[in-house]
Amino acid sequence: MMDFLILFLFYLVFMLVSVVMVCICSKTNRLKGLVQGGAQICSCIIPECIQRAVRKLLHYLFHTRNHAFIILHLVLQGTVYTEYTWEIFGYCQELEFSLYYLLLPYLLLIICLIFFTLTCLTNPGTITKENELLFLQVYEFDEVMFPKNARCSTCDLRKPARSKHCSVCNWCVHRFDHHCVWVNTCIGAWNTRYFLIYLLTLTASAAVMAIISTMFLVRLVTMSDLYQETYIDDLGHSQAVDTAFLIQYLFLTFPRIVFLLGFVMVLSFLLGGYLCFALYLAATNQTTNEWYKGDWAWCQLCPVVVRPPSAEPQIYQNIHSHGLWSNLREIFLPAVPYYERKKK
């Protein structure tokens, strides 16, 4: 029972963190309004000292570089694989599942951890005075989202096209995508390829676990002929076993496996959705930062958006997309300044 409660706690923590991350990464005015409204309501109920402590904690977690989410990521991943090894792997061997299928999650785990480490440790494309002029020549300025001769007031550097200053890391990043708290660094030109493979293997490992867990439960029900049995309901009537009864029976008999199945299924859908979005950006040669800004620029053309009468809307167009294979080649074979190659 204690193991079940611990797993349930990890599940709640992960879902809460996911919701908070979605709200923070989106940064739309509507979400900001909802957050501000919720904060005003909470300020009337929660004491001021607790509010200050929560604000400090949120600032530390989301606005400073720290290893909290890396530790949480590894703990969650370790817990899931421990449950898989302790519960599902042994039962599936007894039911003579193919060993190749059972070992596939471990292979994906190894690949995932390798690219997770590469994503964390690889320089995302930090812009310095030494490589500033080289980065200025990589991409063309569109004069809408990335105007020429713009400067970063914090770094005191000219801003190359597609770059952005990260307030968390406090540096400008070439082809900035977003700052990811799960890897404690920015995702930029030089580590986007590792991040995509890490995300792909993480999604695949969750999906494979969900498939194996489902196959185990289905095989168990099929072999026991449980679906052909009957049971006595509360009124004393004999009832045929239906889907609801099977789910209840399996949950009471194998609570940890059923809970793990639900967890990895939800995780598969969440990660799968984000993976599709990331692949769409890669195929169209966009970054998350450009997609958000481009979407907002498009929204400014909408008549419901209030803007000064004299302001003329500027239409953003993606000038960096040159076909699927060219876009993917740019991500997986990024341009490296000459001085970096010389150092190596």
From TrEMBL:
It catalyses: L-cysteinyl-[protein] + hexadecanoyl-CoA = S-hexadecanoyl-L-cysteinyl-[protein] + CoA. GO terms for biological process: protein targeting to membrane. Pfam families: DHHC. Its EC number is 2.3.1.225. The chain crosses the membrane at residues 6-25, 60-80, 100-121, 195-218, 257-283. Residues 150-293 form the Palmitoyltransferase DHHC domain. It is an enzyme of class 2 (transferase). InterPro entries: Palmitoyltrfase_DHHC (IPR001594), PFA4/ZDH16/20/ERF2-like (IPR039859). It is a multi-pass membrane protein. GO terms for cellular component: endoplasmic reticulum membrane; Golgi membrane; plasma membrane. One of its GO terms (molecular function) is protein-cysteine S-palmitoyltransferase activity. The keyword Cytoplasm does not apply. Keywords: Acyltransferase, Cell membrane, Endoplasmic reticulum, Golgi apparatus, Lipoprotein, Membrane, Palmitate, Transferase, Transmembrane, Transmembrane helix. Belongs to the DHHC palmitoyltransferase family. The DHHC domain is required for palmitoyltransferase activity. This is Palmitoyltransferase. It comes from Ictidomys tridecemlineatus (Thirteen-lined ground squirrel). The lineage of its organism: Eukaryota, Metazoa, Chordata, Craniata, Vertebrata. The gene is ZDHHC4.
